[in-house]
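Reopening this ticket.

The earlier resolution said the output was attached, but the attachment link was broken on my side. Pasting everything inline this time so it's all in one place.
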Amino acid sequence: MNTSNSVTRRRLLSGVPTAALLSITGCVGGGDSQDDVQDSDGDGVIDSQDYAPQDPDVQEKSDFQDTETTPEAPPETTTEAAPETTTPATRLADEAFTEYSAGVNDTDSGESEWGTGNDFINSDDFTGAKSAFQDAREGYAEAKRHFETTVELTVQLGNQDANEVASDALRTAEKNVTAANKVIDSMDAAIEYGVDSDEYDQAAREAREYVDETSNDGYEIGGVDEFRDTLNV
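Inline output:
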């Protein structure tokens, strides 16, 4: 039972009817009953005007029809919350999948900007290329952050398979950030010294070697479906 409801209900029932009874007793105690009194003023109500129309003391008392009663408050209803159907492991898995998916999306954005940077290089627009590679680096850095969180969540889950996929994605994201930094350095050299300079040749060679090396290291960012399959929840 709702305790606050029952208290309110008792207060209403114990107070109002008692006051009404006192008013009725005061009138009846004057010696006349309601059956003996006529509607002398023709208003359709047996009231103090009919009991003693000239007695001011009677007029100060409450009439039968003027007695107000406070209605009983309706009981409050409470709706019980539906029981949770998710477990801590399920929530962790959902969070891990969300983070991994965000990392994949950020990687795709980085790859798109990387392609734009290459287009600028082919047009000898090294300033535009630098800006595009900076955007690519930003996408890779965001992906790295999401994959780091994913790895932490898979550790909490104790899921080795999911952890391996997330860890491979994290290593790839880290290398993507480094590769973007090296390409940006080569763009700086091209802008400052020109594409025929030794500075540009050295920076561009280091960038190419790093990209070639990391492209064949066996690590990759698995698809979201692959990662989902490893979660097993």
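Reporter confirms the inline version is readable. Confidence is low (pLDDT under 50) at residues 1-34. Residues 27 and 225 are 86 Å apart (CA to CA).
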